[in-house]
Amino acid sequence: MHCEMILEEYHEKQPIYLKMQEFILEKLKKSFETKGVVVAGIESRIKTEKSLIGKLEIKGYKYKTIADITDILGVRVITNYSDDVDIVAAIVENMFEMDWDNSVDKRKMLDFDRFGYISLHYICRIPASLFHDDAMPEINEFRFEIQMCSSLQHVWANMHHDTGYKTEVEIPVEYQRNMSRLAGMLELIDEQFSRIRKEITDYRRKVQALVATGNFDEVPLNGDTFRSYLELKPFKRLADKIASINQAEIYEDSLMPYYNVLIRMNMKTLGDVGRMYKECKDAAYQLALLQLAGTGLDIVAYSVTLQNLCIVYILKKGFGEGGLVQMFALLYGKSDYNNQRAHRIYEQATKLKLV
Length: 355
What we know:
- With 355 residues, the chain is α/β, with parallel strands linked by helices.
- It has 2 domains: 2-168, 2-Layer Sandwich (Beta Polymerase, domain 2), CATH 3.30.460; 233-351, no CATH class.
- The chain has helices at 2-12, 14-35, 49-59, 85-95, 151-163, 173-213, 223-230, 236-243, 259-264, 270-292, 304-316, 320-332, 336-351; strands at residues 39-46, 73-79, 97-98, 104-105, 120-125, 144-150, 249-251, 299-301.
């Protein structure tokens, strides 16, 4: 009789749980977006009648009303990395009213086979200061559960649930042992992903600091160092000089596509790039002067600086039209037009006695 009353409440209060679900999901998504927190996914569910009946059969004596059941509405936030769980948790703590007595950090469990169930479980309420509806006062009374876990923990929990958790058939010991071994491997992988991300972040910070010192000969040329180098606007003076030919505006396009060109030109450090600039900047300007004078162009791409520097460098090194064709293929893909472009520029360079 008591359980039937709770089931009646369950059906009666469905609109409230649906409203809560909609609001919580929207609020979490907006908050993560505002704070720049990237998560792998957010899932939610309202417990089915069948699941609720099963819960009441086991623990029905604990509940007087539907409000005593804390997981009718459940939300799961899935992070890419295990150490992002604490970041998400801090956002949840600041957003909702916490029921600390019923919240649990299952990450502190020591069982070696519980990898998929070591998520952080918070029991929360929506505070009236965050949202209130006079027609549904229970919105601020009913509790809900938020689980926070990593992607690997989420996948493992789903797989383990599907292969034996909460079934009526006892799983043989040898299968349980294999599952436990897999759990240990996944936990190690989860930890290593977080560790690698931290190490890469630390490396990038060190690179940025090294680039900022200006000791470019000590900085190897790679994608990260080149990106940091470009933030210093190393070709701005040449860009301003080229733009002044026609009193043109500079269009700030990306120079990152030229990274592969520099690597093909066998440059090893940012110091090599700097030396190319010093050695080729005057000729690069003269080439731009020949290209732009009399055209009336009032917008010049910033990338013309590095393009002309590379052109001059390639020709000075004796790689000729073939070298220019290779450069354009790296920048724009293979095309017959690359040959035409290379031939035209080669003729312009000949007039300037660059070849």
